[in-house]
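Lecture 7 notes: from sequence to structure.

We start with a single chain of 253 residues. Read the sequence below before looking at the structure.
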Amino acid sequence: MPNPPSDQPKYLVEHLAELRQRLLRCLALVAVGMVAAFWKSGWIFGALLGPFREIQAQFPDFAAQVRSLQTLTPIEAFMINMKLAAIVGLVLASPFILRELWVFAAPALKAGERGSISMVFALGLFFFTGGLAFGYFVIIPLALRFLVRYNLDYRFIPQWTLQGYYGFVVNFLLLFGALFELPLVLAALVSIGIATPAFLSQKRKHAIVAIFILAAFIAPSADPISQILVALPMIVLYEAGIWLSYLTVRKSS
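Now the structure, written as tokens:
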């Protein structure tokens, strides 16, 4: 039986109190993640410097000009460390934050909806992690090789700063973490009625052309292999989005 109207304010207050408690717990989880990331900042700095060291090994002329990254202010390295700790801490805490939000919202959902949202959370983390890995191991080395060749061809004198380099790397990582959520975005468009699986299938050729244009901007190299390396995973993600959209329609019917 539904609760009497007189009890509704009481249950609303309890509900808001629980939400406040879980949000505070989420903030605490982010703080713990930031502390852990700051504690391991040396490892994080070293990992993000990996592509830079590889470029130095591949281009001796560049290595002779840029032996290390420069800092322009006394506090620059510390502030970059804090920003990295905040980003990494949020990423580390995100699975636990999603669990807290899930536990809060789950009682109001039906059994089928719970399973669907659990799958969305899991796939979201999987795709985001895949995007980070693809950006780190493929995109950033390709981009750095192109940019270093460009500087050397025009005889520019590179003076890379710590802030400029880390901003470049982190932005690329977050960009590809977001781009790899494409299957979930397509499935969401289908679920709210903006698109259909048949429409996405019909527009496959247009999507592939758009992906190759985007790949040409991301990897602006004359080498077609580089552009194919960038475009191919995105085409696979588009196909995965079509497949997920069919599953979405099947579950809702």
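The longest helix spans residues 111-153. Keep this in mind for problem set 3.
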